[in-house]
Amino acid sequence: PGADASIGGMSATRASGTNAVRYGTMRENVLGLTVVLADGRVIKTGTRARKSSAGYDLTRLFVGSEGTLGVIVEITVRLYPQPEAVSAAVCAFPSMGDAVRATIETIQMGVPVARVEFLDSLAVRAINRHSNLTFRESPMLFFEFHGTESSVKEQAETVQEIVAQNNGTDFEWATRPEDRSRLWNARHNAYFAMLQLKPGSRAVTTDVCVPISRLAECVIETEQDLNASTLPCPIVGHVGDGNFHVAMLLDPAKPEEFEEAERINHRIVQRALRMGGTCTGEHGVGLHKMGFMIEEHGEDAISVMRSIKHALDPKNLMNPGKIFSYDA
Ligand SMILES: Cc1cc2nc3c(=O)[nH]c(=O)nc-3n(C[C@H](O)[C@H](O)[C@H](O)COP(=O)(O)OP(=O)(O)OC[C@H]3O[C@@H](n4cnc5c(N)ncnc54)[C@H](O)[C@@H]3O)c2cc1C
Cα(310)–Cα(248) distance, rounded to whole angstroms? Predict the structure, then answer.
């Protein structure tokens, strides 16, 4: 995730990186925690065993609790071996719909891609300028494959076929580490590259996540919505997870641009919820998305969350005012 993320912050927000499509998010990768509670008790959750049926899953309760239930001070994570072989690929598409459909088919075919990231044409322009690259300025997918030499080759060939059937072109393969890191560094710097599309701007970033089967529909409707906006709005997506970010670039001195970004954000979240998705795939609720919580979960589920908060933190000491209001 974000360049300066700490492992405590990642656990607290249930974060994920570009390789979550294969390896999961912090939800799957935290095995146990040590947590300091509001009353000073120190508890351990989980064990190092691969599985357990012993009682409530407190690890999962604290992962994603955004510091509202306790301070996480120790984290046991799952480790993975380095894959024997890694290869990367990029390709361009005539439309966002084609790129997203290629992703959906790849996931639905069960190809175990390690990463599949989407950039729209504006985001590609940004990384071209920022990282001195010459990609065609059209929607793109970045792939990475992990496995043995033969399984990586097999995955790559299957994906290449799916991409061709969805009008993908400009296939570029990279197996040497330096070529792979050139491609992925450009992707990782995309946020900072996008800010340079409008010097002096700040980005309001959306974070919706929808079921993969609704992703194409959601992205296409969002694209139509953004076409009517005066703000530059590049899109990047962890599309293998159904999660995408619109970075709305606004002038911080112009409140009307902030209001425009808020209106767009609201419509994007409503669309995602209508499609069975969530207002936040990985960044967390904080203050900004509190207004969507009842619509996403329902009054009763929020009141259960509130009961847990009241039981563990009756004086409302831990990150007060975040996720939902303490009093109904
Ligand atoms: C350019 C950019 C790219 C990003 N990309 C991603 C991405 O790909 N995936 C992703 O998931 N996120 C991404 N993010 C969001 C952000 O990086 C993540 O949410 C990250 O996990 C936050 O970690 P942090 O250490 O910065 O936490 P902070 O922002 O400091 O804290 C986040 C919340 O967790 C609480 N908290 C922090 N530490 C603890 C602790 N030890 N115990 C209890 N509560 C705690 C804080 O109180 C706060 O409520 C991105 C952000 C930026 C700016």
Answer: 37
Which pLDDT band holds residue 158 (cuts at 50, 70, 90)? Answer: very high
Beta strands (DSSP E) in the chain are: 30-37, 42-45, 70-77, 85-92, 115-119, 140-147, 169-174, 202-205, 235-238, 243-250
13 C-alpha to ligand 1 centroid (Å): 6
The DSSP output letter for 240 is G
Express each pLDDT in 229-241 by its tens digit: 999 999 999 999 9
* Ligand 1 centroid – CA 175 distance (Å): 31
Q: Which domains does the chain have, with CATH numbers?
A: 7-77 (3.30.465.10), 84-284 (3.40.462.10)
Strands of the 140-147 sheet, one edge to the other: 169-174, 85-92, 140-147, 115-119, 235-238, 243-250, 202-205
Residue 8 in this model has a pLDDT that exceeds 90: yes
pLDDT band per the 50, 70, 90 thresholds, residue 42: very high
Q: Could you tell me the two tokens for 137?
A: 């300025």
Please name every residue paired with 146 in a beta bridge, in sequence order, or none if there are none: 86
Note the pLDDT tens digit of each residue in 83-127.
999 999 999 999 999 999 999 999 999 999 999 999 999 999 999
Say whether pLDDT at 2 is over 80: no
Ligand 1 binding residues, C-beta < 6 A: 1-2, 5-6, 8-10, 12-13, 15-17, 66-67, 71-72, 191, 282-284, 319, 322
**Which residue has the CA at smallest separation from atom 19 of ligand 1?**
283
Sequence-separated (6 or more) residues with CB below 8 Å from residue 27: 14, 60, 63, 64
Please name the residue whose Cα sits nearest to atom 14 of ligand 1. Answer: 2
The count of residues in the chain is: 328
